[in-house]
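#random but structural
TW: two for the price of one
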Amino acid sequence: MGAAGVARLRERLQRFRAVPPVRAFIAELQEAEERERRGEPVHLGDMLLRLMRVAIQRNTLLEEQIVVEREEHVAELERLREDVVRLAREHAAPGRRARAARAVEERFARTPLPRRVRRITVSASAGSDGLDAGLRPQSWPDEQKRTLIARGRRLADQELRRHGIDVSARAS
């Protein structure tokens, strides 16, 4: 409806302001207009949508931060393993160095420590083909959906190629 529609509705209801529920409704409409003047969402639904978007964006950033930290920890564990193997080779008695290094490697291999997993992130927006929940049209044409899916696949393929992964055999 927007603030203009709220204002029109409030003006039309003014002649019924003597009725207490209508008067209360007019007050709610005036508050909605005030919110719009302050740059806030006019409707509760708009506010909830904005809050959900903020929550999703914040959670996404936190998840990305956790992944980065985990990768750093896994890399440090890998460096620790290499150092311990090197120390075993250097400080074991001659003739036992290979066996000591192998024992350390085997012990690390049995440990349920997190392992390094290659992470590839495709960052993008839906662009003009996206369907904004706040501006939902009556229908969302199949062609527009297909365009959005194709764009996502194209961006994913570009990122995979950038990491040296062959995407030519990928099923369409």
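TW: number two ↓
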Amino acid sequence: MENDRLNPGDVESPEELMLRLDIKFQDKLLLARALTHRSYLNENPEALEDNERLEFLGDAVLDFLVGDWLYNRFPEMEEGDLTQMRSALVQTNQLSAFSRQLELQNAVRLGRGEFKSGGKLRKTLLCDLFEAFIGAIYLDKGIEFVKDFLFPMLEDAVFEIIENHKNEDPKSKLQEWAQAKGFPPPNYVTKNVKGPDHAKIFEVEVKVNNKMMGCGIANSKQAAEKIAAKIALDRLFGK
């Protein structure tokens, strides 16, 4: 069960996290860096580095390992389906779910402003946190350890994705429909962006053949585009 902490100073230490997850880092500072959000660095100059570089590395490691796992796990799956499945497994919603599964939000170090705005609950922050954590494991323990750690999580997640058809990308399906009708590709237009930098809200419309078909609102442009495409498909097919 999740145990969300009450304030930004009351967080699970790297040592506590290692004990709980049964992962012993040789470089504890590396783990601490993976758990340090840039907002904490801004308010605590003694902290040497945030987790953004580790996030970059973890993103690349995840892309490779998820592709490797899918290729071997589903030997009969076509390339296009493998691509969609990989996208579903590394998208923000899924990676943030992995982060919550590990309860990494209880160990992340946030600045007070980010904490008060609900940062530890935001999917984008949790996604970045998981990527940084994977990057740190890779550097400290190597690729085989990451495989042993990650692959069971993928096994659990992939069947839920298949069952709920989460790998079906509404933007791709809308584009296929438009092409079948002889229309140009759907056009996504950002109509409005509001909110502070750390919590922006995007409103995006999708037009097909110059006709507005759907509007999506979400905390990222990509997510808003997907919602708009899903609404357009629901209108087209009466769902």
